[in-house]
Amino acid sequence: MSKASGFLKEFRDFAVKGNAMDLAVGVIIGAAFGKIVDSVVKDLIMPVVNFILGGSVDFSNKFLVLSMPDGYTGPMTYADLTAAGATVLAWGNFLTILINFILLALVVFIIVKAVNSARRKEEAAPAAPAAPPEDLVVLREIRDLLRK
């Protein structure tokens, strides 16, 4: 067997057997789950938070200009200032991302707690009594026949 075919066989064994397939499935499900959680935060929780606070919890346009390029006369927006080479401290964008992260972590925590609670209930359900071993059943039948 050549080194190339040995390498391919080893790679196939790695990819098909063991943890590689489990990891691939986990990554795919994780990506889909991430989209679901992101949608819960963005589409369900943030509108409620915005309604309660009476406005938008989007601070991405809040920033502090540390240095302005010489002769700059353009708009004072974050995108225009950074494109012109201004040094800008984007504290609002960081705050928005931090709030989104905290809400996302809260949603994941609630989902994990619900799953763990469901697992505990499932484990706590009494198991049906196990059937007696077959040899015990045969011995009981022999005993009953001998009694007759």
UniProtKB/TrEMBL annotation:
<keyword id="KW-0997">Cell inner membrane</keyword>
<keyword id="KW-0812">Transmembrane</keyword>
<feature type="transmembrane region" description="Helical">
    <location>
        <begin position="20"/>
        <end position="37"/>
    </location>
</feature>
<dbReference type="InterPro" id="IPR001185">
    <property type="entry name" value="MS_channel"/>
</dbReference>
<dbReference type="InterPro" id="IPR036019">
    <property type="entry name" value="MscL_channel"/>
</dbReference>
<keyword id="KW-0406">Ion transport</keyword>
<comment type="similarity">
    <text>Belongs to the MscL family.</text>
</comment>
<dbReference type="GO" id="GO:0005886">
    <property type="term" value="C:plasma membrane"/>
</dbReference>
<protein>
    <recommendedName>
        <fullName>Large-conductance mechanosensitive channel</fullName>
    </recommendedName>
</protein>
<dbReference type="GO" id="GO:0008381">
    <property type="term" value="F:mechanosensitive monoatomic ion channel activity"/>
</dbReference>
<keyword id="KW-0472">Membrane</keyword>
<comment type="function">
    <text>Channel that opens in response to stretch forces in the membrane lipid bilayer. May participate in the regulation of osmotic pressure changes within the cell.</text>
</comment>
<comment type="subunit">
    <text>Homopentamer.</text>
</comment>
<keyword id="KW-0407">Ion channel</keyword>
<dbReference type="Pfam" id="PF01741">
    <property type="entry name" value="MscL"/>
</dbReference>
<keyword id="KW-1003">Cell membrane</keyword>
<dbReference type="InterPro" id="IPR037673">
    <property type="entry name" value="MSC/AndL"/>
</dbReference>
<keyword id="KW-0813">Transport</keyword>
<feature type="transmembrane region" description="Helical">
    <location>
        <begin position="88"/>
        <end position="112"/>
    </location>
</feature>
<feature type="transmembrane region" description="Helical">
    <location>
        <begin position="44"/>
        <end position="68"/>
    </location>
</feature>
<keyword id="KW-1133">Transmembrane helix</keyword>
